[in-house]
Amino acid sequence: MDIFEKISSLAKRRGFIYQGSDIYGGLAGTWDYGPLGVELKRNIKNEYWKTMVQMRDDVVGIDAAIIMSPKVWEASGHLESFSDPLVECKKCHHRFRADTIIDEVKLKAKDFSITDYACPDCSGELTEPKTFNLMVETYLGVVEGEKLKTYLRGEITQGVHVNFKNVLSSSRVKLPFGIAQVGKAFRNEITPGGFTFRSREFEQMELQFYVKPNDEESMKWFEYWKEERRKWYLSLGMREENLQFKKHNQLAHYAKAAYDVEYNAGGDWKEMEGIHHRGTWDLSRHEQFSKQDMTYFDEESKERYTPMVIETSGGVDRATLFFLMDAYYEEEIKDGDVRTVLKLHPKLAPYKAAVFPLLANKPELVEKARGIYDKLKCDWMIAWDERGNIGKRYRTQDEIGTPYCFTVDFETLENDTVTVRNRDTMTQERIKISEIYDFIKNKLQ
Ligand code: ATP
After folding, report:
1. Pocket perturbation via mutation, ligand 1, pick of 133, 229, 313, 321 by most ligand atoms within 8 A of CB
2. In the beta sheet, which residues pair with residue 298?
3. How many angstroms is it from 233 CA to the middle of ligand 1?
4. Where on the phi/psi map is residue 352: left (φ > 0), alpha (ψ -120 to 50), or beta?
5. Is the pLDDT of residue 151 over 70?
6. Quick one: which of 216, 320, 194, 340 has its CA closest to 269?
7. How remote is the CA of residue 388 from the centroid of ligand 1, in Å?
8. Among residues of the chain, what percentage have pLDDT more than 70?
9. Under CATH, to which class is 351-443 assigned?
10. How far is the CA of 274 from the centre of ligand 1 (A)?
11. Ligand 1 atom 23: the closest Cα is on which residue?
12. Ligand 1, atom 13: nearest CA belongs to which residue?
């Protein structure tokens, strides 16, 4: 089994992620997050928000609508490729205009076999050329014939840029500053796959950071954000050897620099986040299409200009998948006995701790453990388990990434102490019940 299969099987078995519309045979490219998945994903988004918005003086957040005026997508260039037949690489999923690969005459006459061509980037197999657009169409209004055709947003970026002026006039931000957003995006991916890696509905977490249109200064910010984003993944426990930057050699015509943050998914480096220097493209295009002034007036220098944008654009689902992969271990304990353990950072773990009574049939133990559990769950997601033997309960918590298990036993009734068992080291120590709260809090710093 490869790592994708292992993770998808664990995800389904333990309630992290299920196939979307499962009982109807599944809807390709859609995924539903179960009781544990929703916690993990929410923790990732909360950590993102905390680092990128809460802890910073130069970033504010917004939450824009998923459905936007179709004009937005004309301005952003997302509708332009409508009539171009494209081919996609089945391996690296890069897309190319078919006429850059196949001779135009042959292409028009459909006189070619696609198997004679390969992906220019990785030599992978190509899909047949198709005229398509990744934007998911939708219609607003109730009267047939008068409905407005529009799109579910293909990226969350544009919701930020169209609000640039609103944020400027309604808050006290000054350049350089950023606007962050987390939310759903939709793409009609031709080849969804790799579990949640390439979905048709997914979530993004993004920062659009506006800077003076000065090449040197803007590149400093580019380098700064590139490093900040790397540090963020490391701070949540991702292993350094599994992260790398990949430079884009082919840049969009307006872009000044672009890197991907890649994750080593079982030996295959995959894009997890993009760091892009987008020049003044977004704001100037919206100015052109909306006929609204999108410039910034610099009070200090008394200049008016269109800011440049440094974008960090990560996928919440990809981060969730890669945090799961990174935390996944199969460890031989003794004599061929293997435990599966998710060594998730406590900040990301769905449950921060579990509380057990040693025996379910001893009311005094159950009552004492319940008291601890009821108190802790006011502040954190805490698991409760009283079934089966204690070893099995530890294994279950290991597999879902719970970092600590507190067990109430007969000694608890004598001296108000419990055992705390560490997921990663499997060691146990005794602490006072009164120390449990601070114990957990310290692990979440
Ligand atoms: P790819 O080359 O893999 O299609 P992209 O370069 O088109 O990705 P961007 O448009 O830069 O991706 O989007 C930013 C981030 O959004 C990506 O780094 C990824 O984490 C996430 N993302 C993009 N498309 C998908 C998708 N179909 N499913 C899940 N996440 C996605």
Report:
1. 313
2. 303
3. 17
4. alpha
5. yes
6. 194
7. 43
8. 99
9. alpha beta
10. 8
11. 315
12. 313
Is the pLDDT at 130 greater than 90, yes or no? no
431's CB contacts (< 8 A; 6+ apart) are 417, 418, 420, 439
Query: Measured in whole angstroms, how far is the alpha carbon of residue 245 from the centre of its chain?
Result: 17
pLDDT at 84: 67
Amino acid at 189: E
Q: How far is the CA of 117 from the centre of ligand 1 (A)?
A: 25
Tell me the C-alpha distance between 211 and 384, whole Å. Answer: 49
Say how far apart CA 432 and CA 430 lie, in whole Å: 7
* Rounded distance from Cα 332 to ligand 1 centre (Å): 36
Query: How confident is the prediction for the chain on average, in pLDDT?
Result: 94
Q: Are 268 and 298 in contact (CB under 8 A)?
A: no
DSSP for residue 82: G
What's the 315 CA to ligand 1 centre distance in angstroms?
Answer: 6
Residue 359: pLDDT above 80? yes
Assess whether pLDDT exceeds 70 at residue 204: yes
pLDDT given for residue 397 in this prediction: 98
The CATH classification number of 3-67+149-324 equals: 3.30.930.10
Q: What is residue 131's predicted lDDT score, i.e. its pLDDT?
A: 77
* pTM listed for this prediction: 0.93
Enumerate residues lining ligand 1, CB below 6 A: 93, 155, 187, 189, 198-199, 202, 204, 271-274, 313-315, 317-318
Q: What span, in angstroms and rounded, lies between the C-alpha atoms of 91 and 127?
A: 10
Instruction: For residue 192, give the H/E element and its range.
Output: none
pLDDT of amino acid 81: 55
Ranges 1-15, 126-140, 382-396: which has the least confidence:
126-140
Q: What is the mean pLDDT of residues 175-200?
A: 94
Atom 26 in ligand 1: residue holding the nearest Cα: 198
Res 92: pLDDT: 85
What average pLDDT does the segment 251-262 reach?
92
* Cα–Cα distance, 325 to 319 (Å, whole number): 10
- At 93 the pLDDT is 84
**Domain parsing of the chain, residue ranges:** 3-67+149-324, 351-443
Centroid of ligand 1 to alpha carbon of 160 (angstroms): 17
Q: What is the 3-state secondary structure (H, E, C) of 263-332?
A: EEECCEEEEEEEEEECCCHHHHHHHHHHCCCCCEEECCCCEEECCEEEEEEEEHHHHHHHHHHHHEEEEE
Which of 195, 204, 208, 320 to mutate for ligand 1's pocket (most ligand atoms within 8 Å of CB)?
204
Q: Please give the number of the atom of ligand 1 that sits closest to the Cα of 273.
A: 18
Q: For residue 93, how far is its CA from the centre of ligand 1 (angstroms)?
A: 10
Retrieve residue 217's tokens: 């200064």
